[in-house]
Amino acid sequence: MANGFKLITVLSIPIYINYTWFIVFSLVVSTLAMNYFPQMGPYYSPLAQWGMAFVTAFILFTSILMHELAHSYVAQRQGITIKSITLFVFGGIAHMLGESRTPRGEMKIAAAGPALSLLLSGAFWGILYFQDQAMPASPLMAIAHFLANTNMILAIFNLIPGFPLDGGRILRAIIWERTGNIGKATLITSRIGKGFAIFLIIIGLWDILQGAFIGGLWLIFIGIFLQQAADEGYRQTLLHRALSSVTVRDVMTTPVIVVSENMPLDRIVNDFFFRYRFNSFPVVLEDRLVGIVSLHDIKDVKKEEWPYKSVKDIMCADLPDFTISPGSGAIEALNRMVESQHGRLVVMEDGKVAGIISQRNIMQMLKLKADLSNT
Predict the structure, then answer these.
(1) What is the gyration radius of the CA atoms in the chain, in angstroms?
(2) Disulfide check for 18: which of 40, 54, 88, 150 has CB 3.0–4.6 Å away?
(3) Cα separation, 297 vs 362, whole angstroms
(4) CA 331/CA 241 separation, integer angstroms
(5) What is the predicted pLDDT for the residue at 173?
(6) Residues contacting residue 117 through CB under 8 Å, at least 6 positions apart
(7) Across the strands, what pairs with 16?
(8) Residue 204 contacts residue 223 (beta carbons within 8 Å)
(9) In the chain, what are the domain boundaries?
(10) What are phi and psi of 9, to 5 degrees?
(11) Contacts within 8 Å (CB) and 24+ apart, 349-355
(12) Pick from 326, 313, 319: nearest CA to 288
């Protein structure tokens, strides 16, 4: 997911395209141009078929993006931050920082996507219904026919009751509301989702044996992706449950070992990185935080230049990127460390360095909670 580029921003949400998206986009365009539209209208010119295929594929992936935006909009209304939406080889995914606090809220978020896809399908069926021209004679009708069907299929596929599909999230919300246990609800729907994934893999293998190599391989890849997503979704739910009430103050380390911005790099390496074996240190000037220096920053400098370069020459000075308040949640801290690739965040309170939090601190808290739950 990290390999891609930002396309646009919608509803204050950055939209990214992963490079794998171009694979499926090219596959859809070529399939439409060489197979679908020649059957719908044999008299279309080759140029018209490829033009129609490109337009149709563009609208199809816009529909997928709108599906994810529907989820994101409802989530934002519940106060959930949407970091980004990424289009990739299997469609689209919204990166939500957090989950709904109630079953009904979860159900609304999950249902928004399929509802939007059904609405789009209905709109394209409406074009077919109200058009006077015969379908084979009109490129518009051929395009609308394909998009009506695919949006309907997208909605139905996502309503399959297996996590992490939207139908699985809806079923999870129902079980969660009845049992009051989101962990149990996620476990049940994750198993259903893994069962459906295995079913897709088996169907894909059967298709390959029958000679439909591309279609079968595609089903296998989708099945593997869904199986991994089901496992990851269950782990994420357990993680959120365990850390839901934990704040940065609960797990941060004090006192903090800091370095001066004027220290040469060779001294930092010998007296701090080798001695304390942390991957980064806060940088201060007269007790004021001015940056952070990491092992990665030093590795980018040639060793023979270490005595002649100081910390301020290589440190990261973007304070919001690596600082956090003690009242923030541990989940937020963990998400930020993973996303920014900073192994540690500096905890700031009243303008001063109050502590430091690392992924190790959070993992130790998780281990403690797991050990106590087993006693």
Answers:
(1) 26
(2) 88
(3) 24
(4) 10
(5) 94
(6) 63, 67, 151, 152, 154, 155, 158
(7) 6, 86
(8) yes
(9) 4-243, 248-373
(10) -125, 125
(11) 349/325, 352/287, 352/289, 353/256, 353/258, 353/282, 353/284, 353/289, 354/252, 354/254, 354/326, 355/248, 355/249, 355/252, 355/253, 355/254, 355/256, 355/326
(12) 319
In which element (H, E) is residue 50 found?
helix 46-77
Whole-angstrom Cα distance, residue 308 to residue 110? 56
Rounded Cα gap, residues 60 and 357, in angstroms: 44
> For residue 132, what pLDDT is reported?
59
Element spanning 6, H or E: strand 4-10
CB 85, CB 93: distance < 8 Å: yes
Dihedral angle sign, alpha carbons of residues 352, 353, 354, 358: positive
CA–CA dist 159, 189 (Å, integer): 12
Cα–Cα distances (Å) from 165 to 159, 214, 298, 306, in that order, read 7, 23, 43, 52
Closest CA to 185 of 223, 245, 241: 241
pLDDT of the residue at 211: 85
Report the candidate in 314, 311, 308, 317 with the shortest Cα–Cα distance to residue 271. 311
Site of tokens 């490129």: 139
Percentage helix, strand, coil for the chain under 3-state DSSP, each rounded to 5: 65, 15, 20
Other residues' Cβ atoms within 10 Å of the Cβ of residue 41: 18
Length of the chain: 375
pLDDT value at residue 61: 95
Beta strands 288-294 and 13-18 are unpaired
Residue 29: per-residue pLDDT: 94
Enumerate residues 6+ apart whose C-beta is below 8 A from 105: 78
Q: Does domain 248-373 have CATH number 3.40.1080.10?
A: no
- Cα(220)–Cα(198) distance, integer angstroms: 9
192 Cα distance to chain centroid = 22
Q: What are phi and psi of 301, to 5 degrees?
A: -105, 135
Which residues does the chain have with pLDDT short of 50?
375
